[in-house]
UniProtKB/TrEMBL annotation:
It comes from Kutzneria buriramensis. This is TROVE domain-containing protein. Belongs to the Ro 60 kDa family. One of its GO terms (molecular function) is metal ion binding. The keyword Ribonucleoprotein applies. It is found in: Cytoplasm.
Length: 497
C-alpha cells in the first residue's frame, strides 16, 4: 500500500471537498475581491498578493489579450484600483512580446495620483529599469490626467513618488502649452525651485494668493462669495480644513458643498450633521446622492452606501442612501421563475473586512448582494445560513438597506450542503453568496439536480471552491451580475469584459 504516492483531492480551508479552478477563473475571482495588502480569514495579505501576482504573470504568458481586457475592466467597470495597478505592473514585467503593455498601463491609470502609485510599486518590486512601453503608457495617462486641480489635490510631500518624479522618470510631452507650464511647475515644486507662477496657471496662482491670507482673517472669506473663491483656487474640503486651522462650521460646509464631489459628500454626512448644516442645503446633498446618473458616474462600490448609512443614520440621509444603493446595483438582473438565494453568515465572513479602511465585513457584502438578487427576482426565497439556516423575510417593494440592517444574523459554521437540503424545493436556479469555504464531505451543488443552474458569488477569491460544473462569479461590485442571463442563454466561458 502506497504511503506517499497517493492522489490528494483539493479541500477548502475548512476541510470540505473542493474544486481546483483554472488560471483564468482563479485570477478573475481573486482580482475582483482583492483589496491589495489586506488579509482575509484564511490567507495573510502576503499570501493573497503573491498568489495574485503569480496568476497575473501566468495568465499574461498564456493569454495576454484576455489578461489585458481583464485589467482594463477591473479598473474601469469593477472599479478595483490597487489590484488593477499591481496587475498592470506584473503584466508589463511578464510580457516579453511587443504590443499591449503601453495600452494596459494607460488603461488602469484613471486618477491623477495613480501614475505615482504605479511607479511606487514598480520601483519597490522591479527596480529603476523601466521599459519603454511602461514609460509611454504612464506618459499617455499623465497627459490625460495632470491639470492644475489634480496637481493641487494630489502632489504633496507626503507622497514618496511625487508628480515631478513621475515626469522625470517618464518624460511625457505636454498636450498643450498650459500643460508644459504645469509640468515645469511640478518639477520646480518637487525640487524647491518655485519662483514665479506662470500666468497660464490661474488656479495655482489663486491658491498661492489664498494661502498668503493671515490665519486670523481666513474665516472672513465666508461672509462673502466664498463658493467662487474656493472653486477658483481649487480648494477641496481637506485643503480648507488645513487652511482654516480649525473646525469646519455649518457656514463653511455650506460654501464647500456646491463644489464637492460625490464621494466627498458621501464621506461627510456625519460631519454635516454635527456642524448643523441647514436642511435646505442638506436637501441638495440628498438629491445629488439619490440621482442614478450621479451614482453611475461616481462608480462607488455598493458597500460604501451601507457604510455611509451606518456612519450617519440621520433620517434626512436614509431615503437618499437607499435610493443610491439601489442604483449602484443596476446590473443585478431580474431573474424569471423561482430563485433560491443563500447568503453565507458564517464566522469567516464576519472576520474579513472588505478593506482596511472599512468597518464592513464580507458578511455585510453578502447580505447586500443576496438581498438585491432576491428583491429583483420574479419569485425568490432568501435564506441566511451558517451552522444552521433560516428564511429572511422580504416584503414587496422593500429597499435593500433596512433588510440588511435588521434581518441577518451571525450563524457560526458553513454548512452549505445542509442549507441546500433544507430549502431547495425544485427552484429554477440557486444563487449562493459566500466565500465558498464549506466544511462538508460532499460538493454542495451535488444536492441540486444537474440541469438546474447554480451560481456562486464568491466574495473572497480563495484558490479552492465548492462548485463543479456550475458557474462562479465574484467581487465587491455588481459589475459581473449581467453574466447570469447570458449563462442561462447557453454560454459558459462568458466574461464581463
Amino acid at each position: 500500500m502506497a504511503k506517499f504516492n497517493v492522489l490528494r483531492r483539493p479541500v477548502t480551508h475548512e476541510g470540505g471537498v473542493a474544486l481546483k479552478r483554472g488560471v483564468k477563473h482563479e485570477l478573475f475571482l481573486l482580482a475582483v475581491a482583492n483589496m491589495v495588502g489586506e488579509r482575509s480569514f484564511y490567507e495573510t495579505a502576503e499570501q493573497r498578493d503573491d498568489r495574485f501576482t503569480q496568476l497575473v504573470r501566468t495568465a499574461t504568458v498564456e493569454d495576454p489579450e484576455w489578461t489585458a481586457r481583464l485589467l482594463g475592466w477591473l479598473r474601469g467597470t469593477a472599479n478595483m484600483r490597487s489590484a488593477s495597478i499591481v496587475g498592470a505592473a506584473e503584466f508589463a514585467h511578464a510580457r516579453t512580446e511587443p504590443g499591449l503593455t503601453r495600452q494596459v498601463v494607460n488603461s488602469v491609470l484613471q486618477r491623477a495620483d495613480e501614475p505615482g502609485e504605479f511607479l511606487s510599486y514598480w520601483l519597490a518590486r522591479h527596480g529603476r529599469a523601466i521599459p519603454k512601453p511602461v514609460r509611454r503608457g504612464i506618459g499617455d495617462a499623465v497627459r490625460r490626467l495632470y491639470d492644475e486641480r489634480s496637481l493641487l489635490k494630489w502632489d504633496s510631500e507626503a507622497r514618496g513618488v511625487r508628480m515631478g518624479d513621475v515626469l522625470n522618470l517618464t518624460h511625457p510631452k505636454p498636450a498643450e502649452n498650459w500643460q508644459g507650464a504645469l509640468f515645469t511647475h511640478a518639477l520646480d515644486r518637487r525640487y524647491g525651485n518655485v519662483a514665479e507662477i506662470p500666468t497660464n496657471l490661474p488656479v495655482v496662482k489663486a491658491r498661492e494668493e489664498l494661502l498668503a491670507w493671515p490665519v486670523e482673517r481666513r474665516r472672513e472669506l465666508f461672509a462673502g462669495d466664498a463658493v467662487a473663491v474656493l472653486k477658483g483656487a481649487g480648494m477641496t474640503w481637506e485643503a480648507v480644513a488645513g487652511w482654516l486651522q480649525g473646525p469646519l462650521t455649518a457656514e463653511v460646509w455650506t460654501a464647500l458643498i456646491p463644489t464637492m464631489g460625490y464621494m466627498a459628500l458621501l464621506r461627510n454626512l456625519r460631519n454635516f450633521d454635527q456642524a448643523g448644516v441647514p436642511d435646505d442645503v442638506a436637501a441638495t446633498v440628498a438629491a445629488k446622492l439619490a440621482d442614478p446618473e450621479q451614482v453611475a458616474r461616481s462608480r462607488q462600490l455598493p458597500m460604501r452606501f451601507l457604510s455611509a448609512y451606518r456612519a450617519a443614520p440621520s433620517l434626512r440621509w436614509a431615503w437618499a442612501l437607499e435610493r443610491a444603493l439601489d442604483a449602484s446595483l443596476a446590473n443585478v438582473p431580474s431573474l424569471p421563475g423561482r430563485t433560491l438565494v443563500l447568503v453565507d453568515r458564517s464566522g469567516s465572513m464576519f472576520y474579513s473586512k472588505v478593506s482596511r479602511n472599512s468597518d464592513l465585513t464580507r458578511a455585510d457584502a453578502a447580505a447586500v448582494f443576496g438581498t438585491a438578487i432576491a428583491r429583483r427576482a420574479a419569485k425568490a426565497e432568501l435564506v441566511q445560513f451558517g451552522s444552521t439556516a433560516a428564511r429572511v423575510a422580504l416584503r414587496s417593494g422593500e429597499s435593500v438597506l433596512p433588510v440588511v440592517q435588521k434581518r441577518f444574523s451571525d450563524l457560526g459554521g458553513t454548512d452549505t450542503v445542509g442549507a441546500l437540503r433544507k430549502f431547495y424545493r425544485g427552484h429554477d436556479r440557486v444563487v449562493i453568496v459566500t466565500d465558498e469555504q464549506h466544511n462538508g464531505r460532499t460538493l454542495p451543488t451535488a444536492v441540486v439536480p444537474a440541469g438546474v443552474p447554480v451560481y456562486t458569488w464568491n466574495l473572497a477569491g480563495y484558490e479552492f471552491g465548492h462548485t463543479e460544473g456550475r458557474f462562479t462569479f465574484g467581487g465587491l461590485s455588481d459589475a459581473a451580475f449581467g453574466m447570469v442571463p447570458l449563462m442561462e442563454a447557453g454560454g459558459r466561458d462568458i466574461w464581463p469584459f
